[in-house]
Amino acid sequence: QLQLVESGGGTVEPGGQLRLSCAASALTFSDRDMSWVRQAPGKGLEWVSIINDGGAIYADSVQGRLTISRDNAKNTLYLQINSLKPEHTAVYYCATDLLEVGALDAWGQGTLVTVSS
Q1: SS3 assignment, position 18
Q2: What is the pLDDT of residues 51-65, one digit of tens each?
Q3: Shortest CA distance to 48 belongs to which of 39, 32, 59?
Q4: How far is CA 70 from the centre of its chain?
Q5: What's the DSSP call for residue 60?
Q6: pLDDT of 25 strictly over 80
Q7: Helix, strand, coil % (nearest 5) of the chain?
Q8: Which residues, including other chains, have CB under 8 Å from residue 20's CB and lie 6 or more apart?
Q9: pLDDT (tens digit, 9 = 90+) per residue, 62-96?
Q10: What is the reported pLDDT for 5?
Q11: Which residues pair with 75 in a beta bridge?
Q12: Are the CB atoms for 83 and 17 separated by under 8 Å?
């Protein structure tokens, strides 16, 4: 019975920063590899990053621009976005492989990031 709730999105001017959060309700949170996925307006889903006990992996398009982290004591996943640009505009989802390894079959409702002047 996993629940994922994203928060922290909003409308931000270019050059600003945001930290997105994903609160998980699950006793097994610390055992799960957690991902961020986003969907820009008019585009398909794009995998952003994944974090596990060994570290993090990022999509080539976002490497060095975003930072994923987690706090297992709080059952919370984070995504730090610095120097926001219009290309960051998207709905950001946290997701994990609940039913099938690597399937990303458990999702939150998403939080919208809009970068605009």
Answers
A1: strand
A2: 988 899 999 988 678
A3: 59
A4: 11
A5: T
A6: yes
A7: 10, 50, 40
A8: 6, 7, 8, 9, 36, 78, 79, 80, 81, 92, 111, 113
A9: 867 899 999 999 999 999 999 999 999 999 999 99
A10: 96
A11: none
A12: yes
Q: Which two tokens stand for residue 48?
A: 């952003």
Is residue 23 helix, strand or coil? strand
Confidence of residue 36 (pLDDT cuts 50, 70, 90): very high
Amino acid (1-letter code) at residue 101: V
Q: Where are the beta strands (DSSP E) in 66-105?
A: 66-71, 76-81, 90-96
Quickly state the pLDDT bin for 11 (edges 50, 70, 90).
Answer: very high
> Which residue reads 């998403």 in tokens?
110
d(CA 100, CA 7): 26
Using the structure block, give the residue that is written with the tokens 């959060």. 21
Query: For 32, which DSSP code?
Result: S
Cα–Cα dist 110/116, whole Å: 19
